[in-house]
Write a structure and sequence with these properties.
Blueprint: H1 31-57, H2 61-96
Helix pairs in contact: 1-2
């Protein structure tokens, strides 16, 4: 007996919908972020000044090297928090206009 030919099922095509990426226009700089940046800026600036003073006062070679490296590191971190604070400050002032 001859077999009957079956119709092959048609392949379903997937439709690809292109979604446009959503751009967030609102960047929220609440009071909490400003307080955190300000607190960290003051803290690392104090660490920088303390380590810089100890760098000048210390007499042993190890202490001079240690406080020198610490003052450089704390100085860079304090400058980065200062830049973050200025960005938040200017963004909030220009957004209100």
């Amino acid at each position: 007996m001859a077999r009957k030919k079956r119709a092959k099922p048609k392949a379903k095509r997937k439709t690809v919908s292109r979604k446009t990426p959503k751009k967030s226009k609102n960047i929220a700089f609440g009071k909490g972020k400003i307080e955190i940046v300000t607190r960290n800026l003051i803290m690392f600036a104090m660490f920088f000044f303390i380590s810089f003073i100890l760098y000048g006062v210390s007499t042993s070679e190890f202490a001079i090297n240690l406080f020198g490296i610490l003052s450089i590191a704390f100085g860079f971190i304090a400058i980065s928090f200062l830049i973050a604070y200025l960005i938040i400050f200017f963004y909030r002032n220009f957004r209100k206009r």
